[in-house]
């Protein structure tokens, strides 16, 4: 489908290089050398003579070969006498090589790598080294078969196979194509040599006598005939094959640079074909290139083998034809008419440039580029004199197929252009043929002849308006009226042009010059003005241009030879292969095999603030990362629908593929959903397998509000089911479709419950459908909604199915007529839908849970259960006379034991079976709720109490025994639970006498004392007799450090004789000494830890400074003492920061390790500072606890007369609290510095990606993990417990 576009041409004035003998190309310096009889002329790409070298080879024969040796920068001329002249292109020095002097040279060729020279003599074929030493010397007319000659022997040979009479006759018939014919009248009998591109093989074409196969049929025929013959040789001069004879072979040869093909033309029966041979000597294919009314001058492939040039001469006019192949179809893509040419040859490095020189001495070159001609998915493909038109919107037909063909006769096409006005063709004979575009079809408009001669080959044909086209010729731009052929010079630019375009919106013209600068001017103003936009490379490289007119803004596109996409002078992407323009966006395929798209609105935003090109975004450029679509390697975008979603790609093999990429599909879906065109949207989603959650996620509230319209539009159960079963809680506008909803990233996430909300809304919409027939058609969607409930509402689905069957006026059970006609009932059809998603066993259990045995029978029969299994079960259930008892047994079958309990509770005569059920399935808690308020509640409570007692839940057992009225067992349970108050209450209900209660309380008190539960012991002694047990009460409160209560109890009974006061003094004195010791010990530990922490922080600050000064070369891990595990195992520390960066980024594992080491304050540990902070936090908490106790202990000491002890304790506590408060400020400063951060440095400066990076300004890390130890503990310094009387 690609055409060849001539995007640049240039030529010298006539007679610049007259009497040229040969031409050689220096591609590296873009110079072309011409050999004349007395001098060598060098011409540059600006068409000016650059240099001239004098030489003279008179008396040395004629010039056979003339080549440029780029590695030595010399010109090599080989003469027929064997003399070799080497001309330096630097100073023109001529050196004579005489190794072949006296040898009659008639032909030859340098290998493409310039490492070997093939020289042909009348009977020899010689291979010379670069020093012109003969390495090989073989016979030119070698008779033996080649090494790779195709051999057919035995049963593999066609001659030995049985093919019948017709096959025998066909085998014996001589193929006229393989009969060596007479020489072509234009054959000059030259020996031709052509190399393959890798310099490993070459082909030689010679004229020689060959056996005449027609002699056997016609005795009068000559035994031998002269004909051209091909031989394939290796670089080592080993004959590979002798090619099959070909009738009418012409004296032209070209070996394909890549692959194994050789091209030779032949003429037979007035037609010219091009035959392609393989290296084994067999012909592979052939195709017709025209009539035999012309002479073939040369055939040649460009360097990358994509274009085949055929140089023809007809009636004194030379034609250059450019052929390409796609999908096994050879087509003539472009043709030029020239005055008679001396030679035309491809550039040795650039596959696009062709050099030529005329007999009259005019040198020129042209450059071609393959590309698509597409507008609004109408593809125009050139094939000789035919123009193939393919409408991709109807069918993406690959070449050589097409929808319509336009014929221009036998003349080839030079230039073409498409626009909304139609199609214009400039033929090689300068006829301008135009077609009008009507209803997506081209109809003939006009055909005119351009009569004014042009100085150069025209390029860049463009429509200017509906009746005129324009083109570039050097620096001139001409306009031609397509109706009468009148030509008009529009402008003569100061520079040579390569592209132009006229904007019809404001009559402005735009031009791109060779230096990459853009110019513009309005009609009537002949002085073009430079635009601010300039491409950063020469326009020679930037040629595939386009101008997008947005009304008030123009965007200048260009694609250069390095595949850079340039837009308004900015490099948008580094590797773009093809581009397709639409009305609102453009698409590109990249060399990284990605398909990207960008709207013009988004492009304008980026042009306002161009993003920087970095190594990270080199793959996607200005396009959003991840927004592309992977395509097959070598794919090219041909066209795309501007108002649709289809994109048409051509594969490397030539076939077409249609894709609907997400970046085209999702915006279209957004428009459809926003316009409430739900059916169109869901159909497109199903075809392209797009997540249907987008229907809801696009606008949840709007979807729920319009769910009835959604159901009515879709009206398809399959589509509704796909939507429902595809629902999930994820918001697709924040996940898979996030690039298309960038505004959602900064908004709060939607609440959960999306699936339930949507399913219930659809369910209601379906069930509220008034038309029964319509409701039945989409009712399976309602069943799907039941299944989306959590848990799945299978039972509810069956119950609703029963109601729907009833509403339809049908019976639940399948009728005999339905069974005979094999037409399932409504209920069975809907049950079949449920079977797709629910297991058969689960369906039957859900049917039983409806407690409708007829419904359960229908389900069992539909799911093909064994009647021997379900019929006895249903009969046994039917036999139960009590409905509650029947439901109980159904629940047992489906193993719903809680529901079974609820149902059997209604059968009061089955209480014993109910209790067994409770015990068997451990339903004690449920039973209490079910039987609450019922007759048998006390019995159930007794059962539950016994169970609690057996599991040592004594408190619950006592409560339940009381509920059952069994106070004696409740008394035992309370005693086991050590619940004094409940025991006393139950004892009074039994009732027990007072002495028995007193004995039990005494036992309680003793047990409390043994267990260290001093407060409970004191309270129990108070219940016995507070005065008789005053010393015990006071002593136990004191032991519990409940000093206020102990003192209060003593003061409430001042006249009771007891040893309470001495015991209280003893406990208070002991506690005074303990607290005093603890305060001093805590302060010492605080001071020790704080001093060590200060040292660690100073060392850490010093290490960070050294690290920054040495740019990360300090061994951070070594500067911190390694952990005990590393030291013990002998593991060496990490040597430098690069090795530290390779440490695992498993954050969870490291955090677990840190938490384990927080309590480790061993000196030298990596986490020693964290351990110190943890220890200090605990010490401050202990001091705070002591302060709370002092509020009661100090008044108690004063009340007991221990004034000196109280004063000493208060004074010491005040000193400790103030000193600790000062240390607290030092340990936890208000403003953090890097050395205040706890942990090893390699963890402090580890970034999110696990890499440790050198600190920046201020030495603070890029992120800080907020350890709990970073926050100071709460510490009361108000001394509210202090007694002024003790100061």
From TrEMBL:
The keyword Nucleus applies. GO terms for cellular component: cytosol; elongator holoenzyme complex; nucleus. It holds the Pfam family Beta-prop_ELP1_1st. InterPro entries: A-sol_ELP1, Beta-prop_ELP1_1st, Beta-prop_ELP1_2nd, Elp1, HB_ELP1, TPR_ELP1. GO terms for biological process: tRNA wobble base 5-methoxycarbonylmethyl-2-thiouridinylation. Keywords: Cytoplasm, Nucleus, tRNA processing. Pathway: tRNA modification; 5-methoxycarbonylmethyl-2-thiouridine-tRNA biosynthesis. Residues 885-1046 form the ELP1 TPR domain. Residues 384-638 form the ELP1 N-terminal second beta-propeller domain. Component of the elongator complex which is required for multiple tRNA modifications, including mcm5U (5-methoxycarbonylmethyl uridine), mcm5s2U (5-methoxycarbonylmethyl-2-thiouridine), and ncm5U (5-carbamoylmethyl uridine). The elongator complex catalyzes formation of carboxymethyluridine in the wobble base at position 34 in tRNAs. This is Elongator complex protein 1. It comes from Panagrellus redivivus (Microworm).
């Amino acid at each position: 489908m690609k055409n060849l576009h001539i995007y640049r041409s240039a030529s010298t004035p006539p007679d610049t290089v007259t009497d040229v003998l040969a031409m050689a190309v220096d591609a590296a310096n873009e110079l072309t050398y011409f050999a004349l009889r007395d001098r060598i002329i060098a011409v540059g790409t600006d068409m000016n003579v650059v240099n001239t070298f004098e030489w003279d080879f008179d008396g040395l024969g004629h010039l056979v070969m003339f080549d440029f040796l780029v590695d030595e920068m010399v010109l090599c001329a080989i003469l027929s006498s064997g003399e070799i002249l080497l001309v330096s292109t630097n100073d023109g020095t001529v050196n004579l090589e005489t190794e072949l002097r006296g040898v009659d040279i008639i032909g030859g060729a340098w290998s493409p790598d310039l490492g070997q020279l093939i020289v042909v003599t009348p009977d020899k074929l010689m291979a010379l080294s670069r020093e012109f030493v003969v390495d090989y010397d073989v016979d030119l007319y070698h008779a033996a078969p080649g090494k790779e000659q195709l051999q057919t022997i035995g049963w593999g040979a066609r001659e030995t196979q049985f093919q019948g009479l017709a096959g025998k006759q066909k085998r014996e018939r001589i193929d006229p194509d393989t009969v060596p014919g007479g020489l072509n009248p234009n054959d000059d009998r030259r020996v031709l040599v052509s190399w393959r591109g890798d310099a490993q093989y070459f082909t030689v074409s010679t004229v020689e006598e060959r056996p005449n196969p027609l002699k056997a049929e016609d005795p009068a025929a000559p035994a031998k005939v002269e004909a051209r013959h091909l031989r394939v040789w290796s670089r080592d001069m080993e004959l590979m094959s002798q090619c099959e004879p070909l009738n009418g072979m012409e004296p032209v040869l070209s070996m394909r640079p890549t692959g194994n093909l050789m091209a030779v033309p032949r003429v037979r029966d007035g037609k010219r074909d091009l035959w392609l041979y393989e290296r084994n000597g067999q012909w592979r294919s052939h195709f017709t290139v025209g009539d035999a009314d012309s002479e073939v001058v040369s055939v040649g492939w460009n360097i990358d083998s994509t274009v085949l040039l055929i140089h023809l001469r007809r009636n004194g006019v030379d034609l250059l034809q450019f052929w390409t192949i796609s999908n096994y179809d050879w087509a003539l893509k472009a043709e030029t008419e020239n005055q008679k040419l001396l030679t035309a040859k491809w550039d040795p490095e650039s596959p696009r440039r062709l050099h030529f020189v005329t007999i009259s001495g005019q040198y020129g070159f042209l450059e071609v580029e393959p590309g698509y001609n597409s507008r609004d998915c109408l593809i125009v493909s050139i094939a000789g004199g035919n123009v193939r038109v393919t409408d991709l919107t109807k069918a993406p037909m690959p070449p050589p197929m097409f929808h319509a063909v336009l014929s221009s006769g036998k003349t080839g096409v030079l230039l073409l252009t498409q626009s909304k006005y139609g199609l214009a063709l400039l033929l090689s004979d300068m006829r301008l043929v135009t077609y009008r575009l009507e209803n997506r079809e081209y109809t003939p408009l006009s055909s005119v002849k351009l009569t004014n001669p042009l100085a150069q080959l025209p390029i860049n044909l463009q429509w200017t308006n509906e009746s005129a086209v324009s083109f570039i010729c050097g620096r001139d731009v001409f306009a031609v009226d397509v109706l009468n052929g009148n030509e008009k010079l529009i402008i003569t630019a100061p520079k040579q042009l390569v592209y132009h375009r006229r904007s019809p919106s404001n009559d402005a013209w735009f031009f791109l010059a060779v230096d990459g600068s853009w110019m513009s001017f309005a009609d009537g103003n002949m002085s073009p003005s430079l635009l601010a936009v300039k491409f950063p490379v020469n326009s020679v490289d930037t040629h595939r241009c386009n101008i997008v007119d947005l009304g008030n803004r123009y965007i200048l596109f260009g694609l250069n030879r390095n595949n850079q996409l340039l837009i308004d002078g900015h490099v948008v992407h580094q590797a773009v292969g093809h581009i397709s323009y639409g009305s609102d966006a453009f698409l590109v395929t990249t060399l990284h095999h990605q398909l990207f798209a960008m709207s013009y609105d988004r492009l304008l935003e980026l042009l306002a603030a161009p993003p920087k090109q970095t190594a990270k975004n080199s793959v996607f450029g200005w396009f959003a990362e991840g927004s592309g679509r992977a395509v097959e390697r070598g794919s090219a975008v041909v066209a795309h629908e501007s108002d649709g979603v289809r994109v048409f790609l051509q594969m490397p093999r030539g076939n077409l593929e249609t894709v609907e990429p997400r970046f085209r599909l999702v915006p279209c879906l957004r428009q459809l959903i926003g316009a409430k065109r739900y059916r169109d949207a869901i159909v497109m989603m199903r075809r392209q397998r797009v997540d249907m959650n987008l229907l809801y996620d696009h606008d949840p509230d709007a979807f729920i509000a319009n769910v009835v319209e959604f159901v009515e539009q879709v009206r398809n159960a399959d589509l509704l089911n796909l939507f429902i079963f595809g629902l999930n809680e994820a918001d697709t506008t924040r996940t898979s479709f996030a690039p298309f909803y960038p505004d959602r990233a900064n908004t709060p996430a939607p609440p959960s419950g999306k699936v339930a909300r949507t399913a219930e809304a659809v369910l209601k919409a379906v069930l509220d459908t008034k038309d029964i027939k319509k409701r039945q058609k989409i009712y399976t969607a309602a069943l799907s909604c039941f299944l989306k409930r959590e848990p799945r509402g299978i039972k509810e689905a069956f119950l609703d199915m029963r109601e729907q069957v009833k509403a339809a006026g049908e019976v639940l059970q399948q009728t005999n007529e339905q069974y005979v006609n094999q037409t399932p009932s409504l209920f069975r059809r809907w049950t079949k839908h449920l079977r797709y998603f629910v297991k058969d066993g689960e369906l039957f259990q859900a049917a039983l849970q409806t407690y409708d045995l007829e419904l359960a029978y229908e389900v069992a029969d539909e799911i093909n259960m064994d009647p021997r299994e379900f019929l006895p079960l249903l009969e046994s259930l039917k036999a139960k006379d009590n409905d509650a008892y029947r439901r109980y047994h159904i629940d047992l079958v489906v193993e719903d034991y809680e529901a079974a309990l609820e149902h059997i509770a209604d059968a009061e005569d089955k209480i014993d079976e109910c209790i067994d059920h409770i015990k068997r399935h451990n339903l004690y808690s449920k039973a209490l709720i079910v039987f609450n308020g019922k007759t048998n509640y006390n019995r159930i409570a007794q059962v539950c109490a016994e169970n609690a007692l057996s599991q040592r839940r004594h408190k619950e057992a006592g409560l339940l025994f009381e509920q059952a009225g069994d106070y004696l067992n409740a008394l035992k349970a309370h005693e086991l639970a050590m619940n004094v108050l409940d025991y006393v209450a139950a004892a009074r209900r039994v009732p027990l006498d007072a002495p028995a209660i007193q004995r039990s309380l005494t036992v309680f008190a003793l047990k409390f004392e043994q267990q260290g539960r001093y407060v409970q012991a004191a309270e129990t002694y108070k219940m016995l007799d507070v005065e008789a047990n005053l010393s015990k009460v006071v002593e136990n409160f004191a032991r519990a450090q409940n000093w206020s209560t102990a003192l209060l109890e003593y003061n409430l009974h001042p006249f009771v004789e007891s040893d309470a006061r001495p015991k209280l003094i003893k406990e208070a004195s002991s506690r005074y000494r303990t607290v005093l010791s603890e305060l001093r010990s805590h302060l010492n530990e605080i001071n020790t830890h704080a001093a060590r922490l200060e040292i660690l922080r100073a060392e850490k600050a010093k290490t960070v400074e050294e690290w920054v000064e040495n740019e990360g070369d300090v061994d951070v891990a070594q500067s911190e003492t390694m952990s005990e595990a590393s030291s013990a195992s002998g593991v060496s520390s990490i040597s430098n920061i690069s090795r530290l960066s390779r440490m695992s980024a498993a954050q969870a594992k490291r955090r677990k390790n840190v938490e384990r080491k927080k309590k480790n304050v061993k000196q030298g540990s990596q986490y020693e500072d964290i351990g110190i902070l943890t220890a200090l936090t605990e010490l401050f908490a202990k001091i705070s606890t002591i302060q709370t106790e002092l509020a009661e202990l100090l008044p108690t000491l004063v009340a007991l007369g221990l004034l000196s002890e109280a004063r000493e304790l208060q004074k010491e506590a005040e000193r400790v609290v103030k000193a600790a408060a000062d240390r607290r400020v030092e340990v936890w400063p208000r403003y953090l510095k890097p050395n205040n951060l706890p942990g090893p440095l390699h963890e402090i400066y580890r970034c999110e990606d696990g890499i440790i990076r050198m600190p920046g300004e201020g030495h603070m890390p890029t992120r800080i993990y907020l350890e709990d130890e970073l926050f100071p503990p709460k510490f009361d310094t108000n001394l509210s417990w202090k007694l002024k009387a003790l100061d």
